[in-house]
Specification:
The structure is a single chain. The chain has about 230 residues and is an alpha/beta fold. The chain has a single domain, classed as 3-Layer(aba) Sandwich (Rossmann fold). About 35% of the residues lie in helices and about 25% in strands. It has seven helices and ten strands. It has helices at about 50-55, 80-90, 105-115, 125-135, 150-165, 180-200, 210; strands spanning about 10-15, 25-35, 40-45, 65-70, 75, 90-95, 170-175, 200-205, 215-220, 225. Strands 6-7-8-3-9-10 form a six-stranded mixed β-sheet, sandwiched between helices. A four-stranded antiparallel β-sheet has the order 2-1-4-5, with helices on one face. It is globular. It binds adenosine-5'-diphosphate. Adenosine-5'-diphosphate binds next to strand 2 and helix 1.
């Protein structure tokens, strides 16, 4: 608490794919601070490097050069196993396709990341599921399977699942890509509330200007650079 250092930071980040003539410079020296408790949108046209930047920030991909620091840890200093554990414990993801497991109820989907981390579902966990589901307006849907939920409800369950581990960073990759505009607005408001009311640091990749309007900060990329 009271820590004013950013939740995550990138310095001099570069990423080059391929070799020789086929070389693509996806990131060309990106410096970025993600302040705690803020909702940041990364925008830009297709191919501008948004996904590559997000993957490097999330420890899903290794940059060619530069550093990524998340909660004070230099991701480049971690080996593969340590990085996997770090991601599981400190990073949450929400995707365009909600990726809920169809045979599990909403509540079972939400606690899955904890179970995969070897944590027992005790009263404290059940209380947190309640709190998140209340905050996200899906408390009356916890016993339902994904097929019985609307797209917006499924995405809000996916947000609860991403938040259950209390991640330092929540990444949302085109979270409204499969939703109609009314439902999109609802999901975007929930992401904004996660930042405002739960103090969650949220990073959303989108190419939709409309979606970016909900963010506190907008970072625009072009040709591998922040412009
Ligand atoms: P965006 O998310 O903004 O659409 P990306 O980060 O996906 O952009 O891609 C940035 C550039 O890097 C593009 O030119 C893309 O073709 C290239 N790129 C991305 N991933 C790979 C890969 N695995 N191999 C080769 N080139 C890639």
């Amino acid at each position: 608490m009271g820590d004013s250092s950013p939740a995550a930071a990138a310095r001099g980040l570069t990423k080059t794919y391929g070799r020789g003539d086929a070389q693509v410079h996806a990131l060309c020296g990106v410096d970025l601070d993600l302040p705690r408790g803020r909702f940041t949108a990364i925008m830009g046209p297709s191919g501008s490097g948004k996904s590559t930047l997000m993957h490097c920030l999330a420890g899903l991909d290794q940059p060619s050069g530069g550093t990524v620091t998340v909660a004070g840890t230099d991701l480049g200093s971690l080996g593969d196993d340590a990085l996997t554990v770090f991601r599981r414990e400190h990073v949450g993801f929400v995707f365009q396709s909600f990726n809920l497991l169809p045979m599990l109820t909403a509540a079972e989907n939400i606690v899955l990341p904890l179970e995969l981390g070897g944590r027992r579902v005790d009263d404290a966990v059940r209380k947190r599921v309640r709190t998140l589901a209340d905050a996200l307006g899906v408390a009356d849907r916890l016993g339902h399977r994904p097929a019985e939920l609307s797209g917006g409800q499924q995405q809000r369950i996916a947000i609860a699942r991403a938040l259950i581990t209390e991640p330092v960073l929540l990444f949302a990759d085109e979270p409204t890509g499969n939703l109609d505009s009314a439902t999109s607005a609802e999901v975007l408001r929930q992401l904004r509330r996660s930042a405002r009311e739960l103090g969650q640091t949220v990073v959303m990749v989108t190419h939709e200007r409309e979606a970016a309007r909900y963010a506190d900060d907008v970072v625009t990329m072009r040709d591998g650079r922040i412009v």
